[in-house]
UniProtKB/TrEMBL annotation:
Annotated organism of origin: Adhaeribacter soli
Protein name: Alpha/beta hydrolase
Domain AB hydrolase-1: 28-177
GO CC annotation: membrane
Entry keyword set: Hydrolase
Record-linked InterPro entries: AB_hydrolase_1, AB_hydrolase_fold, AB_hydrolase_sf
Biological process according to GO: acylglycerol catabolic process
GO MF, one annotated term: monoacylglycerol lipase activity
Length: 281
């Protein structure tokens, strides 16, 4: 897998950062989870997606190297950022996918901008997650706003998170992109917890069952069934299947791992194969 081209585009009033991994296949735009960044999918690329698609990933507003406005974290604002990126890249329509929050944003894009979407890939995203989702996300959210004495100290901290049940080197680039370096070698996560809370509040305002029922594009929903935190999956299979049934044309597939590590190791290999089969059928 080659190192991606890093670039910025002015879209919807902000400066948005994106990565273009190149390749001669059809374009696949992948949108990361709530507190993640554009490097979140490198486990999937290494597992086979890089050979099949021109993968483009994005730092959503408020994350990574993209601008971090004080306000503007609605789904509509996020969606318009992505449409501006597609316009900049002169991409009339693409395969669109996302993990968790990025999967919901993909659903939103499919509902309101269907002419720009060919098919949808939803990675552990559904209208209803686990009822204790907020509590289950606390180990991931707790890193935000903290300063760590070094990147190595930060890395050791995230390795101890309950959802990181194994480690592979493709994870390093994701965590490297997660932090900014401060004076004296200290590091701090780039995402502002206030912005993340605003994004969550705006997600909860949307009528997701309505959006699902009005989807016109075929979709693939990939569900991680292993425990994330609190000894339970973040997206229980019954909730994932409920979302799949609410869509006119959606396939469901369970994959190895939990909500986080599904993007690496055995889960990544399953996802890469399932996505390739679905999109290139």
């Amino acid at each position: 897998m080659q190192e991606p081209v890093s670039n910025f585009v002015k879209t919807n009033g902000i400066r948005l950062h994106y990565l273009d991994y190149g390749g001669n296949g059809p374009e696949l735009v992948l949108l990361h989870g709530l507190t993640a960044n554009a490097r979140a999918f490198e486990g999937l690329l290494a597992a086979g997606l890089a050979a099949q698609f021109r993968v483009i990933t994005v730092d959503l507003r408020g994350r990574g190297l993209s601008d971090k406005p004080i306000w503007g974290y609605s789904m509509h604002k996020h969606a318009k950022d992505i449409i501006g990126l597609l316009d900049h890249l002169q991409l009339k329509s693409v395969f669109m996918g996302g993990h968790s929050f990025g999967g919901l944003l993909s659903i939103y894009l499919g509902r309101f901008f269907p002419e720009r979407i060919k098919r949808l890939v939803l990675i552990d995203a559904a209208a209803r997650m686990h009822p204790n989702t907020r509590e289950m996300l606390q180990p991931a959210m707790s890193r935000l706003g903290k300063t760590f004495p070094s990147f190595q100290a930060y890395l050791e901290s995230v390795k101890q998170a309950p959802y990181n049940t194994f480690w592979e080197e493709t994870m390093r680039s994701y965590y490297q992109a997660d932090v900014q370096e401060l004076s004296g070698g200290k590091v701090k996560p780039r995402s502002n917890p206030r912005h993340i809370r605003l994004a969550v509040l705006n997600v909860l305002k949307e009528p997701w069952p309505v959006y699902l029922s009005k989807q016109t594009k075929p979709a693939l929903l990939l569900n991680a069934t292993e425990p994330y935190t609190l000894n339970a999956p973040l997206l229980p299979p019954e909730n994932a299947l409920e979302t799949a049934r609410q869509m006119p044309d959606c396939r469901y597939e369970a994959v190895a791992g939990n909500h986080q590590i599904m993007l690496y190791g055995p889960g990544a290999r399953q996802i890469a194969e399932a996505v390739t089969n679905f999109l290139l059928a």
